[in-house]
Design brief:
mainly alpha
Length: 83
């Protein structure tokens, strides 16, 4: 049994010496995700919340028609920043 195993190892080693090593020979797991940054569900949620707030802020600024409305929005912003 030992001799058969030794012969198999030697045959594999001899054959492997003739073939150059490739990067795939060292790859243990199949790569399923693309290389690069990944967006986690939490980061996606945070990004969606930021865009939502930005849209609300833009809508508030485009709704301003006169100085009175501008002063009102400024007061609201000051009160929010003081919290």
């Amino acid at each position: 049994m030992f001799m058969v195993l030794l012969a198999a190892v030697l045959a594999t080693a001899t054959r492997a010496a003739d073939e150059p090593f490739t990067p795939q020979a060292f790859q243990v797991f199949e790569q399923t995700l693309p290389i690069g940054p990944r967006i986690t569900p939490y980061l996606r949620y945070q990004t969606e919340q930021a865009w939502k707030q930005d849209d609300e802020r833009r809508a508030a600024w485009t709704a301003i028609r006169d100085e009175k409305e501008l002063l009102h929005v400024q007061d609201e912003l000051r009160q929010k920043s003081c919290r």
